[in-house]
Amino acid sequence: MGALVLVGWAFNFEALIHLFPTLVVMNPTTALGLVLMGCCFFILNRRTAQGLKPHNLWTRSLAVAVTVLGLLRFVDYVAGLDLRVDHLLFANKLSGDSAYPPSEMAPNTALNFLLCGLGLLLFDLEARNGFYLAHGVILIAAWVALLAIIGYTYHVLLFYRLGAGLPMALDTAVGFALFCAAFMTAQPNRGVVAILTSRTTGGAMARRLLPMAVLIPWGLGAILLVSEQAGYFGKEFAVSIFAVASIILFTFSLWWNARLLHQVDIERLGAEDKLRQASSNLQRSNTDLQQFAYLASHDLFEPLRMVTSYMELLEHRYTGKLDPQGREFITFAIDGARRMEALIHDLLEYSRVDIRGRSFEPADCEQVLQAALDNLKVAIEESRAVVTHSPLPTVLGDRVQLTQLFQNLIRNALKFRGRHEAQVQLHAERRDREWLFVVRDNGIGIDPKDFSRIFVIFQRLHTRQEFAGTGMGLAICKKIVERHGGRIWVESVPGQGSSFFFTLPVKV
Ligand code: ADP
Predict the structure, then answer these.
(1) Is 206 contained in some domain?
(2) Are residues 101 and 25 in the same domain?
(3) Which residues are 315's β-sheet partners?
(4) For residues 378, 382, 383 and 387, what is the CA-based torsion angle, rounded to 10 degrees?
(5) Nearest 5°: phi and psi at 89?
(6) pLDDT score, position 188
(7) Is residue 305 part of a domain?
(8) At 19, is the secondary structure helix, strand, or coil?
(9) Within-domain flag for 232
(10) Where are the alpha helices (DSSP H) in 193-234?
(11) Cα 30 to ligand 1 centroid, rounded to whole Å
(12) Half-sphere exposure of 87 (CA within 13 A, CB side)
């Protein structure tokens, strides 16, 4: 629009200077300002789309030029300095005695250049809570432009002319309004526009109401004004039609939106009920399952102990009286019973983590580690392992379970040590609101595809002949860490050792 008007001024095209015949014309310097704004905005958008930082030297310079243009003219107008900023271009054609229509940059135009220039400068600056300062400034400019357009529609000079000079031209107002609309929609997921474009009920409501709020009063007012001027009816009648039509249209739109909210609320309440039900069902079945696992393993333990003891007694007393095959059968039976005992023992430990867990208290991890090392004394001496550690913090937790956690991880590091002597390092560091612990070894390592599998109950990567175990150790570790509000995971390179990481919340 600015460029068209400039061409008009440069080559004396009446039609281009007078985009809206009979109305005041756009000043050439105003046209230049619009062109600068458009160029700046264009580059900003291109750079954003290319994933670059929006501003570069060009965009900054253009935005500053627009701001300074507006500022100078505004100050000029308010202080009466007669700087003649708006005579920058085609000064000879603007002098009083030329054949061209009179033209100057109106104070509201200057104000809008100031606001739009600032908006462009602040384009990518995020203020608090996702609110963009630029959006605030541009919204004011949009209102100034809209006021002028409405003023033109209703012939209310006060809306588009500030003070005694010439008013803002209609094409200038339209140019500003289009610019502001483009600016606001350039970043649809940010600032004030984010609500309009969002998928929430708020977004749906805003999209329905906003056009109605602008178009109904504006359109209705214009129609009635024209009709009244044409003499179809009197002023009182026009105003009362406006009032009645507004009441009807707004009541309808209110009801329409209330219905939307009502439906969404009913669906939400229904979904909440279902969720609550599902969550309580899940909790109940989880508790039942825990109880079942606990009771089953607890009650199985006793008779199994009896089977093992009597089989051992049988082996002890009657070995000499049996043939070799009979002796072999007894050995198999005892082996099976012992394995089952180990499995049930670990299952019991596993279900105890939640059911028999003690309340949390400050636990010094140095002491916890010492207790774990004491329990593993024999295994450490046998494997001639070296266990080192950096200073460990005090955390809030169940001391017995934390000891078990350290113990299981260190025991695994000793067990899966490979050919060299085991070296186990423990380290803890603070990460924001949690402590990150790592137990690092130089053992056989784990294939990355098994990283998550090893934390599942009864999951093992080796046969009993290679390494003893039940596959419950890490599952118990996971349960303990999760009960304390942390996470556990492993990183490893096969053949080079493993690092078990777990987090515990910082004591508050
Ligand atoms: P278990 O030790 O009784 O087999 P775990 O649950 O403690 O059961 O461990 C599961 C599997 O994870 C083990 O069978 C082993 O293959 C692997 N694993 C655990 N810790 C280590 C470690 N430090 N180094 C290598 N492999 C490990």
Answers:
(1) no
(2) yes
(3) none
(4) 40
(5) -110, 145
(6) 84
(7) yes
(8) coil
(9) yes
(10) 193-197, 201-229
(11) 76
(12) 11
Compute the mean pLDDT over every residue in the chain, rounded to the nearest whole number. Answer: 91
Closest among 405, 439, 402, 436 to 422, alpha carbons compared: 439
Provide the token pair at 317. 């007393």
Alpha helices in 100-132 (DSSP H): 107-121
Residue 198 DSSP one-character state: S
Tell me the CATH number at 496.
Answer: 3.30.565.10
Q: In what order do the strands lie in the sheet with 423-431?
A: 386-389, 423-431, 434-440, 497-505, 488-493
d(CA 238, CA 121): 45
CB 501 within 8 A of CB 491: yes
Query: Do β-strands 488-493 and 497-505 pair in parallel, antiparallel, or remain unpaired?
Result: antiparallel
50 and 160 in a single domain? The answer is: yes
Name the nearest CA neighbour of 359 among 408, 406, 407, 396. 396
Q: What token pair was written down for 100?
A: 């061209």
322 and 411 belong to one structural domain: no
Pocket test for ligand 1, best of 407, 454, 496 (most atoms within 8 A of CB): 454
446 lines ligand 1 (CB under 6 A): yes
Q: Choose one of 356, 373, 395: the last residue of a domain.
A: 356
Question: Residue 181, SS3?
Answer: helix
Establish if 370 belongs to a structural domain.
Answer: yes
340, 356, 372: which is the final residue of a domain? Answer: 356
Residue of 383, 408, 412 best suited for mutating to test ligand 1, as the one with most atoms within 8 Å of CB? 412
* Closest C-alpha among 386, 352, 368 to residue 479: 352
128 & 29 share domain: yes
Same domain, 156 and 44: yes
Structure tokens at 124: 């990518």
Neighbour count for residue 234 (Cβ, 10 Å): 10
- Assess whether 371 and 349 both reside in one domain: no
One domain for residues 40 and 169: yes
* Structure token pair of residue 142: 């949009």
Look up the domain containing 298 and give its range.
Answer: 225-356
Decide whether any atom of ligand 1 lies within 6 Å of the 416 Cβ.
Answer: yes
Cα 413 to ligand 1 centre (Å): 8
| Shortest-distance atom of ligand 1 to CA 471 | 8
Nearest CA to ligand 1 atom 19: 412
Contact indicator for 505, 430 with CB cutoff of 8 Å: no
Ligand 1 atom nearest to 443, measured from its CA: 24
User: How many domains, the chain?
Assistant: 3
**166 shares its domain with 54:** yes
Low-confidence residues of the chain, pLDDT below 70? 127-131, 508
pLDDT of res. 485: 93
Tokens at residue 18, please?
A: 């007078």
